[in-house]
Amino acid sequence: MSILNNYTDFMVEKYENFPQSRYLTLIVLRKAESEMIFRTEGSGEGLSRDTVHAGLEARDLISRVTISKRKQTAIERRTGRELLRQHNLLFYAADSRGNRQEAEDNICALNRNKPCGICADCMIYGYAVGGGGAQKSRVITDDAFSVLPYQTVTAKRTFNALYDNNTMRDPVTGQASASIQEDEYVKPETLFVDMQTLKDLTSDEIHYVIANVLRSRRYGAISSRLGKMRNTLVGAIFSDCEIFSNLELTQCVYDRLGAEGRQFPLDENKVESVIADAVAALTGEVIGSVQPLTDSELTELIGEIQQTFASPDEVKGLLDNITALYRERET
Questions:
Q1: Per-residue pLDDT tens over the stretch 151-191
Q2: Which of 154, 216, 245, 321 has the fewest C-beta atoms lying within 10 Å of its C-beta?
Q3: Which residue range(s) make up the domain with 232?
Q4: CB of 216 within 8 A of CB of 75?
């Protein structure tokens, strides 16, 4: 029996067409484990950052590195789609009459205006079709903010592109290359506080989304060469409304770390403890029913997911159960 069975009042049993006000907010600590670059690739812009107040009490303005909501969910939903593709659970897109042409170029795909509308990815993370048809995402994300200021957690590195002869001079023409560039990057061991809100999901759908977060490791631009990140689920809160924002939580954590606790790199264990205190304080201000998972329940939930994803058969069963929810809706 899943630990989530203790919280059935905050989950749905099947896919619902109308909002049910059943929320689960995941508190995620994201840790850079290599140099990382968060920007729109090819834009020529620097790192993504925003100027905000340092804390809820510390009112000085600072810049924080941000991981945009799209940069997060794009990676995590692709992690899930890989599993769906592996188990043949991405389906053919329907035309205006509802017919599904069985052609390779008609299989559910991102950024091709070809959502099938009946797979786990479409129905959880949402889709929109030009000309009609849409599913609003039930995974609500916000920008993730670095705990420490931009100036503290970033650096610049100069690099060049060598020819086959391992020099900067073209082996054919003898001309010297001018391809020397400078990139701004986020330092390894930078910590980001993040929240994801899951709305009106079943127990199986919750397992799927959390697994996508915990299994995703590559984020940002040039992620094939850089961008290793580890995500840790440090809290989970059921509620009947949306709770505090990600920025509020980050600012509260900054305040509670104190001046001595803000030295880079941050002590990850200390930050996790401070996040727990900050969540408890901010939860008390929410106007609604709020039920945080205890530490032992959170550990048990993560253990359930680890056990499921260690077995291909159990993964297939989980995905089949989720897919059946939408097949019932189609019929």
A1: 999 998 766 566 566 666 666 666 766 665 677 889 999 99
A2: 245
A3: 3-88+136-149+188-328
A4: yes
